[in-house]
Amino acid sequence: MKKLTLVLFSLCLVLLLPSCKSALLLTDLTPLKKHMPLTESRQTLGDRMDPKETIEISEIPNKKVVVDVYPMSNGAHTSFYFIAYVDDKLVYWGYPYEFGRHKDEMINKIGEIAWKKFEDK
User: Fold this and answer.
1) Distance between CA atoms of 87 and 65, rounded to whole angstroms?
2) Three-class DSSP category at 99
3) Is residue 79 part of a domain?
4) In which domain, by residue range, is 97 found?
5) How confident is the model at residue 52 (pLDDT cuts 50, 70, 90)?
6) What residues form DSSP beta bridges with 90?
7) Phi, psi (rounded to 5 degrees) for 4
8) In this predicted structure, what is the pLDDT of residue 21?
9) Domain of 95: which CATH number?
């Protein structure tokens, strides 16, 4: 009886834990492609988890900019990860500091503003 209980408990853990995911993994990002429509990329990631927060950035003129914030786990450590959309198209995704290293000034600005807004909440 104890063996059967242990097997059933283990089976429940295997089946239920993936649906209780608390952070994205780098492998979850594999399907993303630059210029992918916002709805498609959110749907792709939504199968894994919903964003912790969505930040709207109005400080960039003539552009509709949205950044989704996800917890990201590398196994030992969890931090925040940004996925940025401009005019409803995926333009860049990475850790906040990576936005600052990008050669495109708009990506730098998106990362800077998104981080400030995220920290202020």
Assistant:
1) 6
2) helix
3) yes
4) 22-120
5) very high
6) 85
7) -65, -40
8) 63
9) 3.30.1450
